Amino acid sequence: MSTDDPSDPRDWEIPTRLVRGGTMRSAHNETAEALYLTQSFVYDTAESADARFSGAEPGFVYSRYGNPTVQMFEDRLALVEGAEACRATASGMAAVYLALTGLLRAGDHVVAGRALFGSCRWILNTWGPRYGVETTFVDAADTAAWKAAIRPNTKIFFIETPANPLLEITDIAAVSAMARDIGAKVLVDNVFATPIFQKPLLLGADIVIYSATKHIDGQGRVLGGAILGETKLIDETYRDFIRHTGPALSPFNAWVLLNGLVTLDLRVRAQSATAAQLADRIAAHRKVKATRYPGRADHPQHEVVRRQFTGGGNEMIGGGNLIAFDLGNQAAAFNFLNALKVVDISNNLGDARSMATHPTTTTHRSMTEEQRQEIGLTAGWVRLNVGLEGAGDLARDIEAALDGA
Ligand code: PLP
Questions:
Q1: 173, 217, 375, 382: which one has the fewest Cβ atoms less than 10 Å from its Cβ?
Q2: In terms of domains, do 280 and 256 share one?
Protein backbone atom coordinates (compact mmCIF):
# COMPACT_ATOMS: atom_id res chain seq x y z
CA MET A 1 0.00 0.00 0.00
CA SER A 2 1.44 3.33 -1.03
CA THR A 3 1.51 6.40 1.21
CA ASP A 4 2.59 10.03 0.62
CA ASP A 5 5.07 9.94 3.49
CA PRO A 6 8.66 10.00 2.04
CA SER A 7 9.93 8.28 5.18
CA ASP A 8 7.64 5.30 4.66
CA PRO A 9 9.94 2.43 3.53
CA ARG A 10 7.03 0.74 1.73
CA ASP A 11 7.19 3.56 -0.83
CA TRP A 12 10.96 3.41 -1.32
CA GLU A 13 12.60 2.19 -4.48
CA ILE A 14 14.69 -0.97 -4.15
CA PRO A 15 18.08 0.88 -3.94
CA THR A 16 16.76 3.01 -1.07
CA ARG A 17 15.48 -0.07 0.74
CA LEU A 18 18.90 -1.71 0.29
CA VAL A 19 20.75 1.27 1.77
CA ARG A 20 18.39 2.34 4.54
CA GLY A 21 15.81 -0.37 5.19
CA GLY A 22 15.62 -1.76 8.70
CA THR A 23 18.20 0.63 10.21
CA MET A 24 17.72 0.92 14.00
CA ARG A 25 19.98 3.58 15.44
CA SER A 26 21.01 3.36 19.08
CA ALA A 27 20.98 6.29 21.53
CA HIS A 28 24.37 7.34 20.04
CA ASN A 29 22.88 7.96 16.58
CA GLU A 30 25.73 6.19 14.80
CA THR A 31 25.90 6.52 10.99
CA ALA A 32 26.67 2.89 10.19
CA GLU A 33 24.56 0.08 11.62
CA ALA A 34 25.76 -0.99 15.07
CA LEU A 35 27.17 -4.45 15.63
CA TYR A 36 25.50 -5.85 18.75
CA LEU A 37 28.04 -8.54 19.54
CA THR A 38 26.24 -9.82 22.60
CA GLN A 39 24.77 -13.16 23.61
CA SER A 40 22.15 -11.87 26.02
CA PHE A 41 20.56 -8.70 27.39
CA VAL A 42 20.04 -7.25 30.90
CA TYR A 43 16.89 -5.97 32.56
CA ASP A 44 16.35 -3.04 34.94
CA THR A 45 14.15 -5.12 37.21
CA ALA A 46 13.07 -8.71 37.72
CA GLU A 47 9.58 -7.60 36.67
CA SER A 48 11.00 -6.35 33.39
CA ALA A 49 12.74 -9.70 32.74
CA ASP A 50 9.45 -11.43 33.51
CA ALA A 51 7.60 -9.15 31.07
CA ARG A 52 10.18 -9.60 28.29
CA PHE A 53 10.10 -13.37 28.56
CA SER A 54 6.31 -13.45 28.60
CA GLY A 55 6.17 -11.16 25.56
CA ALA A 56 4.22 -8.48 27.43
CA GLU A 57 7.16 -6.05 27.01
CA PRO A 58 8.99 -5.76 23.66
CA GLY A 59 12.74 -6.25 23.60
CA PHE A 60 15.50 -8.77 23.13
CA VAL A 61 16.31 -11.53 25.61
CA TYR A 62 18.90 -13.83 24.01
CA SER A 63 20.64 -13.80 20.64
CA ARG A 64 19.43 -17.29 19.73
CA TYR A 65 15.92 -15.78 19.78
CA GLY A 66 16.74 -12.39 18.29
CA ASN A 67 19.43 -9.72 18.14
CA PRO A 68 19.24 -6.07 16.99
CA THR A 69 21.87 -6.44 14.23
CA VAL A 70 20.25 -9.64 12.99
CA GLN A 71 16.87 -7.94 13.08
CA MET A 72 18.17 -5.05 10.97
CA PHE A 73 19.30 -7.59 8.37
CA GLU A 74 15.95 -9.40 8.51
CA ASP A 75 13.94 -6.19 8.19
CA ARG A 76 16.06 -4.88 5.31
CA LEU A 77 15.87 -8.13 3.35
CA ALA A 78 12.09 -8.39 3.96
CA LEU A 79 11.65 -4.87 2.57
CA VAL A 80 13.72 -5.66 -0.51
CA GLU A 81 11.85 -8.91 -1.13
CA GLY A 82 8.48 -7.29 -0.52
CA ALA A 83 7.82 -9.90 2.20
CA GLU A 84 6.02 -9.26 5.47
CA ALA A 85 8.53 -11.21 7.53
CA CYS A 86 12.03 -12.67 7.43
CA ARG A 87 13.97 -15.02 9.70
CA ALA A 88 17.72 -15.15 9.25
CA THR A 89 19.70 -18.37 9.63
CA ALA A 90 23.35 -19.36 9.96
CA SER A 91 23.63 -20.62 6.36
CA GLY A 92 21.58 -21.16 3.25
CA MET A 93 21.29 -24.87 4.02
CA ALA A 94 19.98 -24.10 7.51
CA ALA A 95 17.29 -22.01 5.80
CA VAL A 96 16.41 -24.78 3.32
CA TYR A 97 16.33 -27.44 6.05
CA LEU A 98 14.18 -25.35 8.40
CA ALA A 99 11.87 -24.16 5.64
CA LEU A 100 11.13 -27.77 4.66
CA THR A 101 11.05 -29.51 8.02
CA GLY A 102 9.05 -26.74 9.70
CA LEU A 103 6.16 -27.45 7.34
CA LEU A 104 6.44 -31.23 6.88
CA ARG A 105 5.00 -34.12 8.93
CA ALA A 106 5.52 -37.88 8.61
CA GLY A 107 3.37 -39.13 5.75
CA ASP A 108 3.70 -35.93 3.69
CA HIS A 109 4.83 -35.81 0.08
CA VAL A 110 7.05 -33.24 -1.66
CA VAL A 111 7.41 -32.49 -5.36
CA ALA A 112 10.79 -31.01 -6.29
CA GLY A 113 12.78 -30.27 -9.40
CA ARG A 114 15.40 -32.96 -9.94
CA ALA A 115 18.01 -30.34 -10.79
CA LEU A 116 18.73 -29.09 -7.29
CA PHE A 117 21.79 -27.99 -5.37
CA GLY A 118 23.33 -31.25 -4.09
CA SER A 119 22.67 -30.64 -0.36
CA CYS A 120 18.99 -29.78 -1.00
CA ARG A 121 18.65 -33.00 -2.93
CA TRP A 122 20.35 -34.88 -0.06
CA ILE A 123 17.82 -33.52 2.47
CA LEU A 124 14.90 -34.71 0.36
CA ASN A 125 16.48 -37.96 -0.83
CA THR A 126 18.26 -39.19 2.26
CA TRP A 127 16.89 -37.33 5.28
CA GLY A 128 13.21 -37.09 4.29
CA PRO A 129 12.56 -40.86 4.08
CA ARG A 130 13.92 -41.33 7.63
CA TYR A 131 11.05 -39.20 8.86
CA GLY A 132 8.40 -40.64 6.57
CA VAL A 133 8.55 -37.88 3.95
CA GLU A 134 8.66 -38.93 0.31
CA THR A 135 9.74 -36.77 -2.61
CA THR A 136 9.00 -37.09 -6.31
CA PHE A 137 11.68 -35.43 -8.41
CA VAL A 138 10.49 -34.03 -11.72
CA ASP A 139 11.93 -32.30 -14.76
CA ALA A 140 11.92 -28.78 -13.24
CA ALA A 141 11.22 -27.12 -16.60
CA ASP A 142 8.19 -29.29 -17.40
CA THR A 143 5.08 -27.76 -15.80
CA ALA A 144 2.98 -30.81 -16.72
CA ALA A 145 5.41 -33.05 -14.83
CA TRP A 146 4.87 -31.04 -11.61
CA LYS A 147 1.14 -31.57 -12.00
CA ALA A 148 1.44 -35.28 -12.80
CA ALA A 149 3.48 -35.81 -9.61
CA ILE A 150 0.75 -34.53 -7.28
CA ARG A 151 -0.55 -37.06 -4.74
CA PRO A 152 -3.33 -36.67 -2.17
CA ASN A 153 -0.65 -36.06 0.52
CA THR A 154 1.43 -33.50 -1.45
CA LYS A 155 2.23 -30.64 0.94
CA ILE A 156 5.17 -28.85 -0.66
CA PHE A 157 6.45 -27.89 -4.09
CA PHE A 158 10.16 -27.15 -3.75
CA ILE A 159 11.53 -25.02 -6.58
CA GLU A 160 15.07 -23.89 -7.30
CA THR A 161 15.02 -21.57 -10.31
CA PRO A 162 17.32 -20.97 -12.08
CA ALA A 163 18.60 -24.34 -10.87
CA ASN A 164 22.16 -25.14 -9.93
CA PRO A 165 24.21 -25.80 -12.07
CA LEU A 166 22.49 -26.02 -15.49
CA LEU A 167 20.14 -23.06 -15.00
CA GLU A 168 16.85 -24.83 -15.77
CA ILE A 169 13.86 -22.56 -15.22
CA THR A 170 10.62 -23.51 -13.45
CA ASP A 171 7.47 -21.51 -14.11
CA ILE A 172 6.78 -20.29 -10.55
CA ALA A 173 3.35 -18.83 -11.34
CA ALA A 174 2.12 -22.06 -12.97
CA VAL A 175 3.33 -24.29 -10.12
CA SER A 176 1.95 -21.85 -7.52
CA ALA A 177 -1.48 -21.99 -9.17
CA MET A 178 -1.56 -25.79 -8.96
CA ALA A 179 -0.37 -25.66 -5.34
CA ARG A 180 -3.19 -23.28 -4.43
CA ASP A 181 -5.70 -25.72 -5.90
CA ILE A 182 -4.58 -28.51 -3.55
CA GLY A 183 -3.66 -26.39 -0.50
CA ALA A 184 0.07 -27.12 -0.78
CA LYS A 185 2.85 -24.60 -0.15
CA VAL A 186 5.40 -23.40 -2.70
CA LEU A 187 8.97 -22.87 -1.49
CA VAL A 188 11.41 -21.15 -3.84
CA ASP A 189 15.17 -21.20 -3.40
CA ASN A 190 15.85 -17.84 -5.10
CA VAL A 191 19.62 -17.86 -4.75
CA PHE A 192 20.56 -17.72 -8.42
CA ALA A 193 18.10 -14.96 -9.33
CA THR A 194 18.53 -12.76 -6.22
CA PRO A 195 15.70 -10.47 -5.08
CA ILE A 196 16.76 -8.02 -7.79
CA PHE A 197 15.80 -10.26 -10.73
CA GLN A 198 13.00 -12.45 -9.43
CA LYS A 199 10.25 -11.96 -6.83
CA PRO A 200 8.64 -15.38 -6.18
CA LEU A 201 6.07 -14.04 -3.69
CA LEU A 202 4.60 -11.82 -6.42
CA LEU A 203 4.30 -14.92 -8.61
CA GLY A 204 2.30 -16.81 -5.96
CA ALA A 205 4.97 -18.60 -3.91
CA ASP A 206 4.55 -18.88 -0.13
CA ILE A 207 8.16 -18.95 1.04
CA VAL A 208 11.37 -17.57 -0.43
CA ILE A 209 14.71 -18.95 0.72
CA TYR A 210 18.19 -17.46 0.34
CA SER A 211 21.71 -18.51 0.87
CA ALA A 212 22.89 -15.02 1.85
CA THR A 213 26.39 -16.47 1.49
CA LYS A 214 26.06 -15.84 -2.23
CA HIS A 215 25.15 -12.49 -3.85
CA ILE A 216 23.87 -10.87 -0.64
CA ASP A 217 27.36 -10.97 0.86
CA GLY A 218 28.86 -10.94 -2.61
CA GLN A 219 32.39 -10.63 -1.33
CA GLY A 220 33.07 -14.18 -0.19
CA ARG A 221 33.25 -13.51 3.55
CA VAL A 222 30.46 -15.03 5.65
CA LEU A 223 27.74 -17.66 5.57
CA GLY A 224 24.11 -16.78 6.13
CA GLY A 225 20.59 -17.64 5.07
CA ALA A 226 17.02 -16.40 5.23
CA ILE A 227 13.39 -17.55 5.04
CA LEU A 228 10.78 -14.98 3.97
CA GLY A 229 7.00 -14.94 3.67
CA GLU A 230 3.81 -13.75 5.35
CA THR A 231 4.11 -12.90 9.04
CA LYS A 232 1.53 -15.47 10.12
CA LEU A 233 3.24 -18.33 8.30
CA ILE A 234 6.73 -17.31 9.36
CA ASP A 235 5.79 -16.76 13.01
CA GLU A 236 3.66 -19.85 13.41
CA THR A 237 5.98 -22.19 11.56
CA TYR A 238 9.47 -20.92 12.25
CA ARG A 239 9.68 -18.60 15.28
CA ASP A 240 9.66 -21.25 18.00
CA PHE A 241 11.41 -23.74 15.73
CA ILE A 242 14.39 -21.39 15.35
CA ARG A 243 14.32 -20.44 19.03
CA HIS A 244 14.51 -24.02 20.24
CA THR A 245 16.72 -25.61 17.62
CA GLY A 246 19.33 -22.84 17.36
CA PRO A 247 20.25 -22.17 13.71
CA ALA A 248 20.53 -18.42 14.46
CA LEU A 249 22.63 -16.11 12.31
CA SER A 250 25.55 -14.58 14.22
CA PRO A 251 25.35 -10.79 14.76
CA PHE A 252 28.74 -10.35 13.13
CA ASN A 253 27.64 -12.18 9.98
CA ALA A 254 24.38 -10.21 9.97
CA TRP A 255 26.38 -6.99 10.10
CA VAL A 256 28.53 -8.06 7.13
CA LEU A 257 25.40 -9.09 5.20
CA LEU A 258 23.65 -5.79 5.99
CA ASN A 259 26.55 -4.04 4.32
CA GLY A 260 26.43 -6.51 1.46
CA LEU A 261 22.82 -5.56 0.81
CA VAL A 262 23.80 -1.89 0.41
CA THR A 263 25.50 -2.66 -2.93
CA LEU A 264 23.45 -5.69 -4.04
CA ASP A 265 21.48 -3.92 -6.78
CA LEU A 266 24.55 -2.27 -8.29
CA ARG A 267 26.63 -5.42 -8.14
CA VAL A 268 24.20 -7.92 -9.61
CA ARG A 269 23.12 -5.61 -12.42
CA ALA A 270 26.75 -4.94 -13.38
CA GLN A 271 27.66 -8.63 -13.08
CA SER A 272 24.64 -9.59 -15.17
CA ALA A 273 25.53 -7.06 -17.89
CA THR A 274 29.03 -8.54 -18.16
CA ALA A 275 27.63 -12.09 -18.05
CA ALA A 276 25.33 -11.32 -20.99
CA GLN A 277 28.33 -10.24 -23.10
CA LEU A 278 30.45 -13.20 -22.03
CA ALA A 279 27.65 -15.72 -22.63
CA ASP A 280 27.50 -14.64 -26.28
CA ARG A 281 31.26 -14.91 -26.69
CA ILE A 282 31.38 -18.30 -24.97
CA ALA A 283 28.48 -19.62 -27.08
CA ALA A 284 30.28 -18.51 -30.25
CA HIS A 285 33.53 -20.29 -29.34
CA ARG A 286 34.35 -23.37 -31.45
CA LYS A 287 35.30 -25.49 -28.39
CA VAL A 288 31.92 -24.97 -26.68
CA LYS A 289 29.30 -27.66 -27.36
CA ALA A 290 26.39 -25.97 -25.55
CA THR A 291 25.76 -22.82 -23.50
CA ARG A 292 23.02 -22.08 -21.00
CA TYR A 293 22.36 -18.50 -20.00
CA PRO A 294 18.86 -17.37 -18.96
CA GLY A 295 19.32 -14.05 -20.77
CA ARG A 296 19.95 -15.65 -24.16
CA ALA A 297 17.08 -16.30 -26.55
CA ASP A 298 18.36 -19.87 -27.07
CA HIS A 299 17.82 -20.79 -23.39
CA PRO A 300 15.17 -23.58 -23.52
CA GLN A 301 12.86 -21.69 -21.12
CA HIS A 302 13.67 -18.16 -22.27
CA GLU A 303 9.97 -17.28 -22.54
CA VAL A 304 9.47 -18.10 -18.86
CA VAL A 305 12.61 -16.14 -17.98
CA ARG A 306 11.16 -13.12 -19.77
CA ARG A 307 8.07 -13.29 -17.55
CA GLN A 308 9.86 -14.10 -14.30
CA PHE A 309 13.04 -12.05 -14.39
CA THR A 310 11.31 -8.76 -13.99
CA GLY A 311 12.39 -7.74 -10.53
CA GLY A 312 8.72 -7.10 -9.83
CA GLY A 313 8.44 -4.56 -12.66
CA ASN A 314 7.30 -5.07 -16.23
CA GLU A 315 10.52 -5.53 -18.12
CA MET A 316 13.18 -8.19 -17.86
CA ILE A 317 16.21 -6.47 -16.39
CA GLY A 318 18.90 -9.06 -17.07
CA GLY A 319 19.74 -12.74 -17.15
CA GLY A 320 21.75 -13.01 -13.94
CA ASN A 321 25.47 -13.55 -13.49
CA LEU A 322 25.75 -17.32 -13.94
CA ILE A 323 26.56 -19.13 -17.16
CA ALA A 324 26.92 -22.87 -17.77
CA PHE A 325 28.68 -24.36 -20.77
CA ASP A 326 29.67 -27.79 -22.00
CA LEU A 327 33.18 -28.51 -23.20
CA GLY A 328 32.41 -32.11 -24.11
CA ASN A 329 34.43 -34.03 -21.52
CA GLN A 330 36.18 -33.71 -18.17
CA ALA A 331 39.69 -33.38 -19.64
CA ALA A 332 38.61 -30.35 -21.70
CA ALA A 333 36.81 -28.83 -18.71
CA PHE A 334 39.87 -29.32 -16.48
CA ASN A 335 42.19 -27.90 -19.17
CA PHE A 336 39.96 -24.84 -19.36
CA LEU A 337 39.89 -24.34 -15.57
CA ASN A 338 43.63 -24.86 -15.21
CA ALA A 339 44.39 -22.32 -17.95
CA LEU A 340 42.43 -19.47 -16.33
CA LYS A 341 44.63 -16.59 -15.12
CA VAL A 342 42.11 -14.06 -13.76
CA VAL A 343 39.05 -16.19 -13.01
CA ASP A 344 39.47 -18.39 -9.93
CA ILE A 345 38.66 -22.08 -9.72
CA SER A 346 36.12 -22.11 -6.89
CA ASN A 347 32.79 -23.64 -6.00
CA ASN A 348 31.20 -20.46 -4.67
CA LEU A 349 28.87 -18.16 -6.59
CA GLY A 350 27.43 -14.69 -6.26
CA ASP A 351 30.92 -13.35 -5.51
CA ALA A 352 32.31 -10.14 -7.03
CA ARG A 353 35.32 -12.24 -8.09
CA SER A 354 34.71 -14.33 -11.16
CA MET A 355 35.01 -18.04 -10.47
CA ALA A 356 34.54 -21.21 -12.44
CA THR A 357 33.64 -24.63 -11.12
CA HIS A 358 33.37 -28.17 -12.41
CA PRO A 359 30.06 -29.35 -10.90
CA THR A 360 30.34 -33.13 -11.36
CA THR A 361 33.55 -33.32 -9.30
CA THR A 362 32.64 -30.64 -6.72
CA THR A 363 29.21 -29.15 -5.92
CA HIS A 364 27.21 -32.01 -7.46
CA ARG A 365 29.48 -34.95 -6.73
CA SER A 366 27.07 -36.29 -4.06
CA MET A 367 24.53 -37.01 -6.83
CA THR A 368 24.64 -40.48 -8.37
CA GLU A 369 25.68 -40.87 -12.00
CA GLU A 370 22.08 -41.78 -12.81
CA GLN A 371 20.75 -38.61 -11.11
CA ARG A 372 23.26 -36.50 -13.02
CA GLN A 373 22.25 -38.15 -16.29
CA GLU A 374 18.60 -37.32 -15.58
CA ILE A 375 19.42 -33.62 -15.56
CA GLY A 376 21.94 -33.82 -18.41
CA LEU A 377 24.86 -32.95 -16.16
CA THR A 378 27.86 -34.57 -17.80
CA ALA A 379 31.55 -34.13 -17.03
CA GLY A 380 32.11 -31.50 -19.70
CA TRP A 381 29.97 -28.83 -18.02
CA VAL A 382 31.52 -25.80 -16.34
CA ARG A 383 29.61 -23.24 -14.27
CA LEU A 384 30.89 -19.69 -14.41
CA ASN A 385 30.12 -17.03 -11.80
CA VAL A 386 30.72 -13.68 -13.49
CA GLY A 387 32.12 -11.06 -11.12
CA LEU A 388 32.80 -7.35 -11.20
CA GLU A 389 36.12 -7.37 -13.02
CA GLY A 390 36.43 -5.58 -16.35
CA ALA A 391 34.49 -7.38 -19.08
CA GLY A 392 37.47 -7.13 -21.45
CA ASP A 393 39.84 -8.82 -19.01
CA LEU A 394 37.37 -11.62 -18.38
CA ALA A 395 36.71 -12.16 -22.07
CA ARG A 396 40.44 -12.37 -22.83
CA ASP A 397 41.05 -14.79 -19.95
CA ILE A 398 38.11 -17.03 -20.82
CA GLU A 399 38.72 -17.08 -24.57
CA ALA A 400 42.41 -17.91 -24.12
CA ALA A 401 41.50 -20.74 -21.74
CA LEU A 402 38.83 -22.01 -24.15
CA ASP A 403 41.33 -21.98 -27.02
CA GLY A 404 43.44 -24.49 -25.12
CA ALA A 405 40.54 -26.59 -23.78
N1 PLP B 1 20.79 -23.24 -2.40
C2 PLP B 1 21.54 -23.09 -3.52
C3 PLP B 1 20.85 -23.00 -4.84
C4 PLP B 1 22.92 -23.03 -3.46
O5 PLP B 1 23.65 -22.89 -4.58
C6 PLP B 1 23.54 -23.12 -2.20
C7 PLP B 1 25.03 -23.06 -2.17
O8 PLP B 1 25.79 -23.47 -1.44
C9 PLP B 1 22.74 -23.28 -1.05
C10 PLP B 1 21.38 -23.33 -1.19
C11 PLP B 1 23.32 -23.43 0.33
O12 PLP B 1 23.81 -22.25 0.86
P13 PLP B 1 24.92 -22.18 2.02
O14 PLP B 1 26.21 -22.60 1.39
O15 PLP B 1 24.89 -20.77 2.47
O16 PLP B 1 24.51 -23.14 3.09
A1: 173
A2: no
Q: Is 213 in the pocket of ligand 1 (CB under 6 A)?
A: yes
- Establish if 3 belongs to a structural domain: no
Question: Is 96 close to ligand 1, i.e. is its CB under 6 Å away?
Answer: yes
Q: Is 207 in the same domain as 278?
A: no
Structural domain includes residue 4:
no
d(CA 80, CA 10): 10
Atom of ligand 1 nearest to the CA of 224: 15
pLDDT tens for 185-198 read 999 999 999 999 99
Residue 191, ligand 1, Cβ within 6 A: yes
For ligand 1, the distance from its centroid to the CA atom of residue 208, given in whole angstroms, is 13
124, 158, 214, best to mutate for ligand 1 pocket (most atoms within 8 Å of CB): 214
Same-domain check for residues 219 and 321 = no
Q: Are residues 70 and 98 in the same domain?
A: yes
Looking at the structure, tell me whether residues 234 and 101 fall in a common domain.
Answer: yes
Same domain, 151 and 35: yes
CA of 382 to the centre of ligand 1 (A): 18
Residue 371 is predicted with a pLDDT of 87
From the list 86, 95, 132, the residue with the least C-alpha distance to 110 is: 132
Q: How many separate domains does the chain show?
A: 2
Q: What is the pLDDT of residues 63-99, one digit of tens each?
A: 999 999 999 999 999 999 999 999 999 999 999 999 9
